[in-house]
Amino acid sequence: MIVTFRSKAHADIMMFGDIAISLLKLMGHTGAVPGALLAADVPKALDHLTRAVSVHKAADAGTPEHAPAQEDEPSERPVHLAHRALPLMELLADSIKAKCDVMWDK
User: Fold this and answer.
1) Is residue 54 part of a domain?
2) Residue 39 belongs to a domain
3) What's the structural domain count of the chain?
4) Per-residue exposure over 1-22, b if at least 16 CB sit within 10 Å of its own CB, e if not
5) What is the DSSP letter of 39?
6) Residue 71 falls within a domain, yes or no?
7) Domain ranges, residue 52
8) 15 lies in some domain
9) Which of 28, 12, 38 is nearest to 3 (CA)?
10) What is the pLDDT of residue 52?
């Protein structure tokens, strides 16, 4: 499943469903798709998401990003939550400036 986040203040953002639902929950939302935030609720959602990303960054700080891969490990490194959340955080910030609602659907 692909989830698309929409706002009049920003280009649409598409994410894989599992990541999108995780980010919605970190924003303090239920994770239901489809869904929406009123413009008045967007600052609180961005604050929740920013705090959660900071906690995840601190937890990931002890994980070496450039350590050589072992033979039994996949050659690709996972994308950290902070990197995945950045486009959504930008959409939320732009929506706050423009006082726009944010919607998401499949």
Assistant:
1) yes
2) yes
3) 1
4) eebebbbebbeebebeeeebbb
5) G
6) no
7) 2-59+78-105
8) yes
9) 12
10) 92
The closest alpha carbon to 24, from 7, 46, 56, 2, belongs to 46
Q: What is the DSSP string of 40-97?
A: GGHHHHHHHHHHHHHHHHHHHTTS-SSPPPPTTS-SSPPPPHHHHHHHHHHHHHHHHH
Whole-structure pTM value: 0.81
As given in the structure block, the two tokens for residue 39 are 């413009």
What pLDDT digit, counting tens, does each position of 41-90 carry? 999 999 999 999 988 777 666 655 545 556 666 667 777 888 899 999 99
Q: From CA 36, how far away is CA 64, in angstroms rounded? A: 37
Look up residue 31 and give its two tokens: 């994770």
The pLDDT-based confidence of 28 (bands split at 50, 70, 90) is: very high
